[in-house]
Design goal:
Helices cover 65% and strands 0% of the residues. It has 91 residues and is mainly alpha-helical.
Length: 91
């Protein structure tokens, strides 16, 4: 049982254009997923892993880069991750 499977479930209703609905239904019909919900959950998990991987790479690159001066007030106002991302984009 995965981490997410052990969690209680809740509902989230989404609206899709007909073409996307048909695509999701086709993916389910392929047999790789039992339900549209299972397919969407998998996409969300993959997106989360991708974003965390990107963040990890950004942080590693920042740690290897030149010293960065970050004003404490800016970190408190925006949050550390947002400040680091903005600084990385300026390079």
């Amino acid at each position: 049982m995965t981490y997410y499977e052990a969690m209680p479930m809740t509902s989230l209703n989404i609206s899709l254009p007909e073409a996307l609905k048909e695509y999701v239904e086709g993916q389910v019909a392929s047999g790789d997923w039992a339900t549209p919900s299972e397919y969407v959950r998998e996409l969300i998990r993959q997106d989360k892993e991708r974003r965390l991987g990107n963040l990890e790479q950004d942080l590693i690159a920042a740690a290897k880069g030149p010293k960065i001066e970050l004003p404490v007030a800016e970190i408190r106002r925006k949050g550390l991750l947002l400040v680091l991302r903005q600084r990385a984009r300026r390079k």
